Amino acid sequence: ETGVTQTPRHLVMGMTNKKSLKCEQHLGHNAMYWYKQSAKKPLELMFVYSLEERVENNSVPSRFSPECPNSSHLFLHLHTLQPEDSALYLCASSHDRGQTYEQYFGPGTRLTVT
Amino acid sequence: GNSVTQMEGPVTLSEEAFLTINCTYTATGYPSLFWYVQYPGEGLQLLLKATKADDKGSNKGFEATYRKETTSFHLEKGSVQVSDSAVYFCALTYQTGANNLFFGTGTRLTVIP
Known about the structure:
The complex is a heterodimer of chains A (114) and B (113). Chain A has 114 residues and is an all-beta fold.
């Protein structure tokens, strides 16, 4: 596979469930990102990992827990979510140094919290 | 601070019409500028980019020129197609480590036959 992949593509979960979103990049990048895209709101950056270390956490609630075990994989662990957390969750990757700064996005996971 | 402002949508055009989506930015220093496109049911795809003043990014018939004097990066296409229907996002980033993108709110384009 090439590019950035995300699984699952769709997820429905109850408020008491625990689930994880997975992202994998095959581009040789060393920075990875989680974004939340809600209807009628700007894209929200949630987490940034550079060289497998978290470098930014934009005040995201603790019910979202990221994990980056290596430069190719990124997870978002979910527990006790709220209905307002329903959104499209996008993963992206980029180089962290050098002249190429554009981010490449996965197709997203459409999350519905019931 | 850094921010991007793009024109409110939605925009509806007939096929073969001329497209302009305005984008202006606020930033210190010299950011890189991007246009991303999101087709229905998909993630964002990089459409074009420009990394310094007066650069012109182009792809798939779309163009945008980095105008430092007006802090703008307007997206244009001479003749749109139905397949161009999507949401378009203007964004900027800095050439530093652990960079992140500052996005505009997106402009939905619908092209009708």
